[in-house]
Amino acid sequence: MTAGLRILWLKTGPLHPLDTGGKIRTYHMLRELKRAHRITFLALRPQNIAPNTGTAAAEYSQEQIWVPWVETPKHTPRFYFALARNLVASGLPYVLDNYQSARMAAVIAEHDHGRKHDLIVCDFLTPSVNLFRGGRCARTPTLLFQHNVESLIWQRTAENARGLPRAYFRGQWRRMLNFERSISARFHGVIGVSEEDCRIFRDEYGLGNVLGAVPAGVDLSYFSPPPTPRKPHSLLFLGSMDWRPNIDGACYFVSEVLPLIQRRFPAVTITIVGRNPAPPVRGLTACGPGIHVTGTVEDVRPYLARAVVMVVPLRIGGGTRIKIYEAMATGIPIVSTTIGAEGLPVTHRQNILLADSPGEFADCVCELLDKPDLRAAISGNGLAWVRRSGSWSAASQRFEQYCWKVYNEAKEPN
Prior knowledge:
The protein is an alpha/beta fold. The chain folds into two domains: 6-217 and 392-411, Rossmann fold, CATH 3.40.50.2000; 234-389, Glycogen Phosphorylase B (Rossmann fold, 3-Layer(aba) Sandwich), CATH 3.40.50.2000. Helices cover 44% and strands 15% of the residues. The protein has 16 helices and 13 strands. It has helices at 21-33, 53-57, 77-89, 94-97, 102-113, 128-131, 150-160, 164-184, 195-204, 244-264, 279-282, 301-306, 322-329, 358-370, 372-389, 392-411, and strands at 6-11, 38-46, 63-69, 119-123, 142-145, 189-192, 210-213, 234-238, 269-273, 291-295, 309-312, 334-336, 353-354. Helix 7 packs antiparallel against helix 8. The protein starts with 5 loop residues before the first strand and ends with a helix. 45% of the residues are buried.
């Protein structure tokens, strides 16, 4: 029997609570990998973290190493000072600069120099600022798990911004593009979450170390169609509401799409579910009586069970949306922008409806509200697809193959 790999997994924070798509993907992948490999989970640990963080991490790793870290609260004087300092004193985008930790870099270097692991996995781009801090090189084979094309998110953010923020976002995009391209080339292998992301890394970034894509999955035992009827004319938008693409999507939907739907269905409601809603999202409730913002919830399944249609009105973003798989598993039809469903093997009018302009998006939602047979067909096809192709076990097996590939190729003499 082949011995498993000793993997050092780098992350910028604990996985629990599982309130983002990235955390959910990593959690399920690590749980599968832990069956055959030894996982050492090395991450920053913010202040005021839940006391059960260490216990919960034992679900997906045999060993945990926590590095204390003080997070800068958003929308505070300290936060705006940090933004200003980043502009004048750093060449990194703020979202990476903010996670630099000399202590985490030292712990990584200690484990790397001691050759305590067979492979170092950098989960998302962010930990790379500590893995390669000061231009150091790693002795251990390294693998970058890219959940998004990060620069693409900033490019789209800039394109949808106005005034002074647009200039700021353009600057952050250029910084991210330069860093992402150069740092990705330093890894022995790069894994994306969609074939489109991998194409961008290869063709636009010129990377020769892209191994391939690992698709998303869904926990079919956790998500399942509800036994009770759904609430008529109810819409759902699900996502982390402190993530800029979701903030933009929620505001865009309420201001430009929802009024068009209300002309035909005055009783329509939209429930926006997700952690830490930013002030612009919280303010949407003042736009009408049918708009509800829940904030953080312990369980999203009751909301998926009640809604008639789920909307994914994203204009910014990258990677793949796990929430689409979760919605399909619960039997709810979905209307998404092309960007919202980007990277997923979905087909318009077969297992999803796709629309990009406000009018087209509203028409698709209204069509589903008006036609029960269409709702049943779209949701039934989506459910059948995730049951057939959406297991975390299959995704993890592909990831494991890439891990072995990097490890074995690194052992071969040059």
